[in-house]
Amino acid sequence: MTQQQTEIDDRGHGFVKALGSIDALFIGFGAMIGFGWVVLTGEWLSGAGTLGAILAFAVGGIIMCFVGTVYSEMVAAMPHAGGEHNYLIRAMGPRVSLFGSWAITGGYISVVMFEAVAVPKTAVYLFPNLEQIKMWTIAGFDVYLTWALVGTVTAIIIAWINIRGVKLASLVQTFVVSFLIIVAFLLLGGGFVGGEAANAEPLFTGGAAGFIAVVAVVPFLFVGFDVIPQSAEEIKLPPAKIGKLVVVSVCMAIAFYIIIIGMTSLAMPASELAAHELVTADALATMFNSAIWGKLVIAGGLAGIITSWNAFLMGSSRLMWAMASAGMIPAWFGKLHPRYRTPVNSIIFIGVLSALAPFLGSAALGWIVDAGSPAIVIAYFLVSIGFLVLRKREPAMDRPLRIGGKGNGGMVIGVISAVLTLGLFVLYLPITPWSAQLAWQSWAMFGLWLAVGVFFMFRLPTGIKAGPTAENELLTKVKSLRKK
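^ APC family permease, sequence as received from the core. Prediction below:
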């Protein structure tokens, strides 16, 4: 018997337990540190001011901490691939499980597509002559063949790495996240060496609307800690420790973003921010008085793209595999590679979407961010409700990690998580003067994805109640219907 065979997961699904604590932690943390900190920091500072932006990320981070705490108990109790799928089917049944799982899968895929567009956008700063052979113009942005192919080729490579196995993907993740951490420390050092406190003024700007606009992007930027539960069957750690890693990864991301915002604000006056497209890169170059340091930050941005892209491809493919294995979506998505034991067809499907995304041009970056964020928040809200349901209906359920102690502390945390995530979702609806303004293209992407999920949802057989046997009952019914 080979080492790989001895580490096959105990549910018989065929995943290989290859991830240690650092691997799992860096998957979650790396997923949350994509490309946004390179291109969007200037917008955050201009929109809310230095302290306003930091507080917005602190508030958003606290919300994610409550959600992450809920997830920590759920993954410890149900350490199976597919995360939300398992929690929701046990708490609220197959249809809610499919809706929530499909929503967050769409959110994950939106991040993957975002990064596929961000790669060539970043590469232009390193290779100014990259844009050759104009194809078309979308929303005012010219799309060039050579530019788009950079994203497409990268999509193919990352899909190939993920098909080859979770261990190879995690090795890439660990190496690149380590580089990201070095870049963060360089910015911290640059702030002390070449920063000026006066540049941080104004501390607040934009009022409530500016603050809310920054808070609204936090779910998209912090989504990723929940990739750890997606890969739970591939982590060779006790369930309780897996749960704790979820919260640790969120705290690391909060610290990273606050350092980036704070140190960038010290580099130049607020009046100069609009003249810099990559403010974070230009900030480090200014503080150390050398363009080389700016190039290093751009390399860090590329590193962030890879870590986020890699992690979300892992997470979304496991979710699609879980839904397919339960008979919720076509069985084709549930195939594991015969040698590498990875959900090969799901990876190929998501890889194709990401390979096509660069051909939409730079305009797609904003559309994709705004389309994915509300879908992610929907799933967080449903998981919070599912947590409360299971605490009430199954008090004796085995919980290796019980948050909030033996009393009602856990219920309080769950209620807070549900209320906060519902409030976040309301921010996306155009019903208040402070609502986030989403483009119609974003609503179209969001609506189309959810419409497909609703289609699959109403195709599920009825009469299956929530509970620990719900998935087996669903699969039995689906198989009997397929034979007819």
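DSSP finds 19 helices and two strands in the chain.
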